[in-house]
């Protein structure tokens, strides 16, 4: 990941040439048309915390890893898993996000490599996965507060609280991405600070022997892997906001590098404190248990601080995820993959229709349990990541001369090898999914396979209006189906 900070300028000078009979237009040479919106661009510090909240938001939600596998495997998981999954995903996002610095992100990558049909499938699966993921945060918000407010345990009051929270946070997204970015910075500092205090308070009570407890005969591998996977993925989500970032070709790789460090430390150190400072009771390690540990170590005041930090952290994750999901829909509309009305912005420069669609999905899914939501979004996310890996390798092979302001310092063979471990992990996660989750997820995938031809039919019959933004860069290709990049 150190390379993220020092190879951008070296690669920026590589111009697009001709390869495999395909003529490319250099992205850097396409004169942009004036944008219809004047929203401020996101700078590096807010971008770091937006990535932090896209992926993590703090150690809230990692408790199930201890319940599933014990302290040793939980700690090792949050050290080893980033090397297998997070680092490759972040590197690919840095390369592809700077190659295509526009809203739509991974949808544009897959469309350039595999054609618009598969680009749409990528957009459908990743958007649906993101909306399912976002349905978690009102659930987690209320779970952390229910010990202090028993009325939030269930019933009408909990449902009303979840709905009200969704409305407030949706409005924040409507007001602008710059506001969301700086709110993410403030929430991030407030969310991590109590764990620093808890660590200092816990020092006299740490017993290192507790870290090495493991029982290989009592491991819930499905819960363990799903917890790790959910807490360490979504690095690519920030790519759907690339068009809103200030100088993304330099800012995006740096932000991904610093966010990776922040995320790993934000998981590992609280787990180190929690498992080392209190006697192990695995059954208690579930959502909200860090607040109980805080009470044992520091008293009620620290417990309330952790609960408040958890609540605010879930707010940060919600607004970051909704920003990504809604700008993805806007980017797809700008590429002509969705009806034109998805591309319209509010007076604050935000994708109003995309926000409303994403919020509606969250409300419809908020009744599911935590474990069901995690398993379902992981299943769909896995399919999307397979398409991303294929697109990444295919563009390396078909467009070797394309301008890549940041390029992973490896050749095509190295790129393929880098994708093998996370692909194996994807297969394991899919294989461990329950029948119910697999069936529902496959139905959702099937809907996307049918939806894209239906939209094309609606366009031909002039039932909906589609258009492609004139100010987006594009390639001219001779192959209709292979490497037809960013079709006009």
From TrEMBL:
Give the protein's recorded name: Amino acid/polyamine transporter
Give the superkingdom in one word: Eukaryota
